[in-house]
Amino acid sequence: MNNGILQAGERRGIVMDVDHFAVHDGPGIRTCVYLKGCPLSCAWCHSPESQSPGPQLLFAQTRCIGCGRCVTVCPEGVHRQEGSLHTLERERCSGCGTCARACPTGALSVSGRFMTVEETVSEALADRVFYENSRGGVTLSGGEVLFQAVFAREVLSCLKSEGIHTLVETSGFGREEALLSLAEVTDLFFFDFKLADTGLFRHFTAGDPEVVMHNLASLRAVTDRIVLRIPLIPGITDTIGNVSAGFDLAREMGIQTVHLLPYNATAGAKYAWIGREYQPGLLEARHGLFEELSALAPQGILVEMMT
Ligand code: SF4
Ligand code: SF4
Q1: Taking a C-beta distance cutoff of 8 angstroms, is the pair 232, 238 a contact?
Q2: Which domain holds residue 80?
Q3: Is residue 253 part of a domain?
Q4: Longest dimension (CA), the chain
Q5: If the chain, 307 residues long, is cut into consecutive pieces of 10 residues, what is the mean pLDDT of each piece?
Q6: Are residues 44 and 64 located together in one domain of the fold?
Q7: Is the CB of 99 under 6 A from ligand 1?
Q8: Domains: count for the chain
Q9: Cα–Cα distance between 267 and 269 in angstroms, integer?
């Protein structure tokens, strides 16, 4: 089955969203293209609908008025309305979007649409004037960009040939060849540092920390345009030991900038929309976190708190 990921000879990928006028995803004003599909499944993921590699139905129960239109139009018999109870057989859903278009309240939507390389580049280039005035450009994020590396490379390559600044946000978990291929057409990388403790990394994600570290070293061997990004997940990644390890890694690798990313406390709501439970068991973020953590940085490392 073609799951929507670009195969050899195809020129399309699956895009979760395109954010115009983004100001937190790299220098200047940017267009941020979020690709779908991520194999890491971090326990704290604030964008769980980005993980699956295909179009995915979102259902916001609180907006449903029980009109039953979705039951009538769905060709796969996914929806069932019994009294005020609305249930879904999600495994039957093809992501066609028919029910979302028929829903009068916006309770239904589909995350993910197929886009060709040309469509993606053309949508980004429509914002070109903003890049030129702000020294901005285009950011590819996810999901995990490496999961659709062939599509990503083609998009980035087209943008580079148009003189656009390109940035890739990655967890680093993917094929090394894919990462190095993207490096040829990427001006700047935002590379995640999640957990120094390999046991905890494996416990809280579905990834392999050794692959990530190996890939970071390989990337660093071909470019110094890397920013290390540490998500501050309360009680998990925001500990003094873990953040210090991130700073040490940056220093050892000659990476000069580290971003600290505050945890998005509203993340939990989206899990219900895709029929999952959110139970990461997080603590509250500590007050004065940035001051506390940035004081740990060795000399020569610039630390920035992102909003
Ligand atoms: S997206 Fe299509 S297949 Fe899925 S529930 Fe809606 S109408 Fe049915
Ligand atoms: S069409 Fe929308 S509002 Fe009507 S029953 Fe379906 S989900 Fe609820």
Answers
A1: yes
A2: 56-110
A3: yes
A4: 64
A5: 48 95 95 97 92 95 95 97 93 96 97 96 97 96 96 97 98 98 98 97 96 98 98 93 97 97 80 85 75 92 91
A6: no
A7: yes
A8: 2
A9: 6
Closest residue (by CA) to atom 3 of ligand 1? Answer: 93
Phi-psi region of 54 (alpha: psi -120 to 50; beta: other; left: phi over 0): beta
CA-nearest residue for atom 6, ligand 1, is 99
Evaluate: CB of 78 within 6 angstroms of ligand 1.
yes
Q: Based on the fold, state whether residues 90 and 233 are members of the same structural domain.
A: no
Q: Are residues 203 and 60 in the same domain?
A: no
- For residue 11, give both structure tokens: 């020129």
For 2-148, where are the alpha helices, taking DSSP H only? Answer: 69-73, 98-102, 117-125, 128-134
199 and 226 both lie in a single domain: yes
Instruction: Verify that 47 and 185 share a domain, yes or no.
Output: yes
> What pLDDT score does 146 carry?
97
Residues 102 and 247 in one domain: no
Instruction: Give the domain-ending residue among 110, 145, 176.
Output: 110
Closest-approaching ligand to the CA atom of 73 = 1
Pairing assessment for the beta strands 188-192 and 226-232 based on DSSP bridges: parallel
Locate the ligand 1 atom nearest the alpha carbon of residue 92 and give its number.
3
In sequence order, the β-bridge partners of residue 18 are 33
217/268 same-domain check: yes
Residue 57 Cβ < 6 Å to ligand 2: no
Nearest ligand to residue 89 Cα: 1
User: Does one domain contain both 126 and 158?
Assistant: yes
CB 227 near ligand 2, within 6 Å: no
Answer whether 124's CB lies under 8 Å from 33's CB. yes
